[in-house]
Amino acid sequence: MAMLDExxxxxxxxxxxxxxxxxxxxxxxxxxxKLFVADTYNDDGYPIEGGFADLRMGxxxxxxxxxxxxxxxxxxxxxFGSIELIRPVIHPEFAPMIYMFLKSTCHSCxxxxxxxxxxxEIKGELMTRDELVSSIMSKVKKVKKCPHCAAEQxxxxxxxxxxxxxxxxxxxxxxxxxxxxxISDEDLRNLGFDPEYSRPxxxxxxxxxxxPVNVRPSITLESGERSEDDLTHKLxxxxxxxxxxxxxxxxxxxxxxxxxLWELLQYHVTTYFDNESPNIPAARHxxxxxxxxxxxxxxxxxxxxxxxxxxxxxxxxxxxxxxPDGCISINEVGIPEYIASELTVPxxxxxxxxxxxxxxxxxxxxxxxxxxxTPDGRRRKITDTNKEEIITELAAGWTIxxxxxxGDIVLFNRYPSLHRMSIMAHRTKILPGKTFRVSPSVxxxxxxxxxxxxxxxxxPQREEARAEAENLMLVEDQIISPRHGHAIVAPTEDHxxxxxxxxxxxxxxxxxxxxxxxxMAGINELPKPxxxxxxxxKLILSQLxxxxxxxxxxxxxxKKGSAKSTIEIKNGQMISGYLEKKSLYNIIEAxxxxxxxxQARDFIDGIGKIGGEVITRKGMTVSLKDYTTSDEGKKKIKxxxxxxxxxxxxxIMQYKNKTLEREPGKSLxxxxxxxxxxxxxxxxxxxxxxxxxxxxxxxKAIVIAKIGARGSIINVTQMSGAIxxxxxxEKRLHRGYRYRTLSHFKQKDLTATxxxxxxxxxxxxxxxxxxxxxxxxxxxxxxNTAIRxxxxxxxxxxxxxxxxxxxxxxxxxxxxxxxxIIETVYGGDGRDTMxxxxxxxxxxxxxxxxxxx
Amino acid sequence: MVTKINKGKNELMVTPGxxxxxxxxxxxxxxxxxxxxxxxxxxxxxxxxxxxxxxxxEIVDAKKKPKKPIVTVYLKERYKDKKKVEEIxxxxxxxxxxxxxxxxxxxxxxxVMITIDKKALEERNxxxxxxxxxxxxxxxxxxxxxxxxxxxxxxxxxxxxRMLRKLTNKLKALHVAGVKDITKPVVTQDENGEWLIIAGxxxxxxxxxxxxxxxxxxxxxxxMEIYKLFGIExxxxxxxxEIHTTMKIQGADVDIRHICLLADGMTADGEIVSVGRHGxxxxxxxxxxxxxxxETVKHLVNSAIHGEEDKLNGVTENILIGQxxxxxxxxxxxxxxxxx
Lengths: 853, 340
Description:
The complex is a heterodimer of chains A (about 850) and B (about 350).
Chain A: H1 6-11, E1 17-18, H2 24-30, E2 81-90, H3 95-104, H4 116-124, H5 129-140, E3 156-159, E4 163-166, E5 169-171, H6 173-182, H7 185-190, E6 204-210, E7 219-220, E8 226-227, H8 230-250, H9 255-273, H10 294-298, H11 304-309, E9 317-324, E10 332-336, H12 337-342, E11 344-348, H13 354-362, E12 369-373, E13 379-381, H14 387-393, E14 399-403, E15 409-413, E16 423-431, E17 436-438, H15 443-446, E18 454-458, H16 463-473, H17 494-503, E19 508-509, H18 511-520, E20 535-536, H19 537-544, E21 551-554, E22 566-570, E23 573-576, H20 581-595, H21 597-618, H22 624-627, H23 631-657, H24 668-695, H25 700-706, H26 713-720, E24 724-725, E25 727-728, E26 731-732, E27 757-758, H27 768-803, E28 807-808, E29 814-815, E30 821-823
Chain B: H1 2-12, H2 20-32, E1 39-40, E2 49-50, H3 52-61, E3 70-74, H4 82-92, E4 95-96, H5 97-100, E5 101-106, E6 111-116, H6 118-123, H7 128-138, E7 144-148, E8 151-155, H8 161-172, E9 175-177, E10 183-189, E11 195-200, H9 204-207, E12 219-220, H10 223-230, H11 232-249, H12 256-267, H13 287-293, H14 296-306, E13 309-310, H15 315-321
Antiparallel strand pairs in B: 1-2, 3-11, 3-12, 4-9, 5-6, 6-8, 7-8, 10-11
């Protein structure tokens, strides 16, 4: 392929595209060949002249030359051909338009069935084109006599897809065409048409445009047999019927036969354009598969528009499984050696990098140059044999393609790309192994985990693209999400635990340990010890903080207002407080705001490395022991459960006695359900509280839940307390058998156990009935997830499509593609959602958002 | 000092050229995947009101009527007593004839017997005579009405059987008292301790005719009704508010500016336009953008008929033909004079 110069690409710019109808003259003018043979190739496999593979329409066989432009398979763009239809047929897609014209114009004089005054009146009103047409149509409906020539107007009927009747008489396409041809240019303009570009009679086809061969290439099967494209099949059919019709007409066959053939021709043309139109059977392939004709090619998700035009396929990309690497920066991605040697980056040779490039070509080791391209566009692979030759030839203006090396910029992406953080730029780090290595801190924006997720990389090929990636898409620039202005790239799981352990008041390290930890994060200066000869964890944390950081954050750990819960950082020194997820996020946001993204990136990396090291040294793990409650705790939990059960039984009694007090707006049964759901649902938090007490604040399961590293109190409750109420369709379990959930219960049993309450926990195990209940609930949630992804995906596509052209202009107004103002000032205050610090929520309410009275 | 403040302010402003529309779509769409499909009991509300994703879709679709319209009625006076408020709640609750009477049809004699429940009437402070009058008003000619205390007998000799059933159905739905469409009012307190009534159905027009109702504070979740009653700006605010609360209930933190943009986009033409094929996307000036979204062939055909022009101002169009998009870095061009 000829390498295009960058300047060539920029010169070609399409300004606008106009959509029009083709006139028969235009089709004839465009057509390179008039087709008259209903066949493609002759027995020798050579295209038949006048057939559907005629060489004047372009070539698909290598070695042959196009007879119109002389190009080869690669260079010939293809040329249209045409078929002269012996009798005109109606273009099915335009039939509704034809119907509109037949109804609104006089059959004898071709004028609009309204007086000039009426038309002028309608034209004077302010309305869109569609409104104009519909208002004319509604007025025309009542007209029985042409106001211009006084001809009687008969009712026109339209039968989809292409048949027209006048009262009960069939209107032949010839008649239709004649009528449409009578309509004056002025009348057309009144109806919002542009007669210069599209006359209605052109929608009744007299010549059929035949697409070039490369639009409908034939495939050669292994057996040497040729298999034609669906479109070719259809066109062959059309020409065959056309010829039969012609010979019949010439032979003076009876009108009936001619009309039958004519109708058949119409059918073939109709299915050629749209093979899914209602009321007519789809044209089928020999195997019974419906043919994919023009409409089907364009339509839908797999159609030309959405599949090939909105979505482009690319080179220079790779895909493999992702796995975590605790030592890699959030800005980096580990690339397997194999992938790095396949992907290349082009380097333009100048006088200044000539030597370097020669070395790359010469090099035996990776990264080496794999291809060279000469200034005239010839591309060659570099092999051991031609290496020396190339090196001597190499000069400025050549381009070499070099393998990926450390520090290159690549785009990293995980599907589904729901927001812009789904594609971020990373710097490469070539590593042994077969997976992409990423920092666990960037899993959140990608929504990735390491259970087998695969991700893609793309290597930008041009300087402009690389510059954009580096300056706008780098992970550190995406730490703050534009959705809410909060951090989205941040330490997770064990890193949080590590930071928490470090921030504990009692944590201290010896000099050796401290230097180990700090050097992990690349800090080579040892601070002065602050606990006699030992170093506190906070001191180590402080080394990661920028020196100008001063903040005070309230966390949820410990009592409110206590030293534990108040995280105070003065001049980059952490003074008090225990770190947890929320406060780490706050600190990151503050660093981004006051010191910039690079510092924030260093902090996240540092927490990852030191935190990871701390947790390997100090240890923080959960075991069965952490979920085992004391006998006393068990008793308490049992009591809560029993009480709730009793309470429900009381409600049931009251319900049966009709003494239950009705809640407003609810029936007695509904009241019972709502009351029992409330009592049974409420015990979960009560059990949680008991467990927190019983297991103690030092229990690892509770700790990791509280600091936000992993799990939640609900998980603990379900494992060591009780799984409690199961729900389907927001109600206690109620479906299954008649009046009961399972056949193990009596009919109309409304007690807790009969309606999906699970007393057991995951540690002790469930009884069979409970197991079924849990499965019912679990299935519902799986089904819901499946439905939700589809629904929300479509919603997002719609919003995306509706708003994608909106852009902030220089005056901070938001406008769409055509320049229409949507907002005079973006968001009322023109603030960037990413740049708003939201430690104080109140500060974030923008001006201009009216408070509701 | 002033320059410093200005500088700080400028730093916080959006970068011109930012594709805020796409950012909005991302910000609203991404949390959609995490939202629950569940309907929730809003505090005090009896009806299951769609929240989460279904509600969001409903708003974005600009549905004529929400699935479960809800009105929040504030009162002009700040009553301390719950009873007073409950009385008003009773007053606005719509009563249909069906709620206070039993029906029995006799198809042989072509009669309908309505037995009015006196107890129910007393509960709602309704008079027997008024109801009878109302029934009378509904009757077409040819139907005779006899009544005796709480019994009403309708004789319709000339009616077809089908019409007889139609008549009973019509009478069952006869509006007897209260405000039309308002059902199941519940009295609750807001966070300031003020009493308010939350009820199903939405009919602000009629509600505002009730003297105790405060028209300044009372609202509905029916955006279309707000649009008809108060106009487009109010509708914009209503969309904003509704999406905001929906997101908040789901715990999805979305910046208000994104929701603003969506609401502004939906109302920029002076009427509420839905997001999708029949709304914003279907009304785009660009043929290619519409064709690439949905109903490809229809748009191409129509554009050919009318000789439409695609000016290629949008994102999709330019992607389709392989040109840089007019957003962000695609919007600016760099020119440089090479120095010799």
